[in-house]
Amino acid sequence: MLALFALKGGRTMPRKLQMTILTLMTLLGSGTGSAQEKLRLAWAGFSPTNSPIWVIEDRKLLQKMGVQPEIIAISNSPTVLQALLAGEIDAASISVTTLTSSRLAGADTVMIVGVVPTFVDHIVSLSSITAVEQLRGKTGGVNRLGSTSDLGLRLALRKLGVDPEKDVTIIPTGGTAERFAALSRSLTQFTIIPEPFLTQAEKLGFRNLFNISDLKIPFWWNGVLTRESIIKTKRPLMQKLVRAMVEAIHIIKTEREYEKTLIKKNLGISDPEGLERAYKDYSNAFPEAPYPTPEGVKTMLDDLARQNPKAATADPTTFVDPSFVRELESSGFIKRLYKK
Question: Which CATH number fits the domain that encloses residue 292?
Fold first, then answer.
């Protein structure tokens, strides 16, 4: 090190200059050593289904693994898909409807984490309706036709013995506020609503008619999607994302008040009862080992098969890649988290 500061004639650099050079060398060295990988992650839908993403961002879980994330909220799933296919993002938190439609169209999209494995929704009706059978002849409202809420309502009705194509009429009425307005004006007599908005519905005088999650319909209401081409070039980065998701789910399950604070912050919900009920619904739904199982894809393909021949012959196992979660579980990481 002394030779570094030696000048001709046996003289040495002034101490002040030596310290300046050492400082620069340290800064440059540390900058190289701490260079972080970058990951672009998008999510769509202001719902507690995305709370693992909120935890990752708030607790800086990816930064702790040397990853610098850019986490982007996008208003709708089609825009998220366009960004994924264009290479503008590396992964996305969206539903199986986006996965199936894109892959059937030829995209290499694949689910690597299964976050919400069923519908966490309730059928809400006018107070005069006291049983599911009384929905026959009535009009139901959903966000938009073909959306997750539309599919969830139709699948639930079918399971409950009400034909959604013949026994009822289903129309698009918009978001939660618009669905409440349609009920209030009797434009519709029932709808589908998730927590934390159910408490609001009851306060408006509507009836919590049926909890759809009790049907346990296999369906990936939410999951993490990426592309097979991205997995080939960035597998270690995707593994870190999966690890962060698993850790975030553990935090949600074990830190009730913290999770309710995040729901309140991101959704603007302040009602204590609504927050508590939302916490219970979603924390129970999130799996400890979030394998993206093909059963949740098959439900969607079966529904599409009536109109899309490709869906009828598609293999649901090709839509998911459970290897990332399997690696984590094999390593003992998930057991250590839950101290099993």
Answer: 3.40.190.10
